[in-house]
Amino acid sequence: MTAGPAALLAISMGDAAGIGPEIIVRALAGGDAGRCVVIGDVGVMRRAVRQCGLLLPVARLDEPTDPTPPDCVPVWQPPGLPDGLADAPMGVVHAAAGRAAATCIEAAAALALDGRAAAIVTAPIHKEALAAAGVPYPGHTEMLQALAGGPPVRMMLANPQLRVVLVTIHVALRRALELLDFDAVLSTLRITHAAARAWGLARPRIAVAGLNPHAGEGGLFGDEEQRFIAPAVAAAAAEGIDARGPFAPDTVFMRARHAPPDHPGEFDVVVAMTHDHGLIPVKYLGVEDGVNVTLGLPFVRTSPDHGTAFDIAGRGVADAGSLRAAIGMARALCGAAAR
Fold first, then answer.
1. Domain 1-149+323-339 bears CATH identifier 3.40.718.10
2. Total-model pTM
3. What DSSP line would sit under 268-302, residue for residue?
4. Following DSSP, what letter does each residue of 158-209 receive, concatenated?
5. What is the mean pLDDT of the chain?
6. Which of 92, 199, 257, 267 could pair with 207 as two cysteines, CB 3.0-4.6 Å apart?
7. How far is the C-alpha of 56 from the C-alpha of 217, rounded, in Å?
8. From CA 273, how far away is CA 154, in angstroms rounded?
9. Hey, how many other C-beta atoms are within 10 angstroms of the C-beta on 234?
10. Whole-number Å distance between alpha carbons of 85 and 225
């Protein structure tokens, strides 16, 4: 992996009918994103510039690693994109946009896997559009895992106040409960510990949120904590991982929240059992600076923590704050990994 000021970030376009292209051009218009290349459709990106009312040229690159002129949106259009994307309606699900989004993700991942990009930053995609295109993955995390050869990965959502890693992600809640076991929790703790050490934390403090109210209250409200969550925490601790819990999920996030100077967090990261259990508290603290990070991949991947926002797509009013945060975190993580 290359890193440093000249390291290339590959930014995938996201769903062409959503706000992804708009927030990309807004983020790059500031001129402080460093060396980036957008993997996407040139026509869609030019439409986004117009929608945002920007005076910003879009430069089409022959190769993704070509030098780019200053003060522009550099775009490399990968082979296989559907025709007519820039003429498709905004804010609606359609298969062509889903196929284009998947093609851009595949191309960005290939750049990272062969070392031509230091990291990838992914703009929002729409899961229904992916399904309409016949893409067999429900989201970025699962797709990137497959493209990387299937390593165990986990989803982390982070902002300046709180980091949360999930044991299960994009499945129905009933299915998530079926997937939870000793191995899933222990694997999550191992992945979280390794990732946090790569960021520069010598001994990351990991809190584990229980599954049931009051972390089961000694088995009164469920026995998952006793059967496999607490044993997984103990096994991780025996390996030298500073993992503690399980704690009551309705209070552990407040304990971990880092809001100086009056509220230093007790923990560096919280592991939560299910998607909404873990993501609601992070998003409540502010979507505008939240970042989604995939842990366990052989490259850095970040993303804004919001979706395609079809209700405002095409109006040029989308806030690029979370994407800027994702770009900044990608650069920071690349720098930490290189040290």
1. yes
2. 0.89
3. SEEEESSHHHHHHHHHHT-GGG-EEEEESSSSEEE
4. E-SS-EEEESS-SS-HHHHHHH-SHHHHHHHHHHHHHHHHHTT-SS--EEEE
5. 92
6. 267
7. 58
8. 11
9. 11
10. 49
